[in-house]
Amino acid sequence: MAHFLDVDMDLIVWRHADAVDGVPDMTRELTAKGLKQAAQMADWLNARLPKDARILVSPAKRALQTAAALGRPMEIIQKLAPGTDAMSVVLASGWPDAGGTVVVVGHQPSLGQTASLLMCGAEADLCIKKGGLWWLTNRVRQASQQIIVRAVMTPELS
């Protein structure tokens, strides 16, 4: 679907870092490895994110801990909880008309499905590694919508 306003938007889908196994699912915490992964990705992101980037986070503890590594204000979005679908992620982010930069910190498989939906127009089970992210840009040029993959990053590469 082409949007005829010249609005650019960056959407970063960031999977929570490594977490302990167990139940209840919503209270699972990051492991020591996960805390390190979150810090590595936060350093990488903070060097590149604009100051006014919006940070939207699942209410699950592991996602909140991952996002907290950024040291920025965040919005907890109930519809980003584990088990959400790709369209809920898209709607929560305001894609593509919100403009600016939005970081969504959440879960698989919904984040990989979101990236697939935006890039290909259909959901597929793309895998985003724990602590990793995909950075997509929507831009409109001469009434043509373009989706650009700006970065795919993992903590090990940051």
Following the backbone from N to C, one meets helices and strands in this order, namely EHEHEHEHEE
The CATH class is Alpha Beta
Give the CA-based shape.
Answer: globular
Compute the CA-based radius of gyration: 15 Å
The number of helical runs is 4
CATH superfamily: Phosphoglycerate mutase-like
Strand order of the largest sheet: 3-2-4-1-5-6
Low confidence ranges: none
Description:
- This protein is an alpha/beta fold and 158 residues long.
- It has a single domain (9-157), classed as Phosphoglycerate mutase-like (Rossmann fold), CATH 3.40.50.1240.
- It is 27% helix and 25% strand.
- The chain is built from four helices and six strands, in the order βαβαβαβαββ.
- It has helices at 32-46, 61-68, 86-93, 110-120, and strands at 9-15, 54-57, 75-76, 100-106, 133-141, 144-153.
- The chain has a six-stranded mixed beta sheet.
- A hairpin with a 2-residue loop joins strand 5 (133-141) and strand 6.
- Helix 3 packs across helix 4.
- The longest helix has 15 residues, at 32-46.
- The protein is globular, with a radius of gyration of 15 Å.
- The N and C termini lie far apart (34 Å).
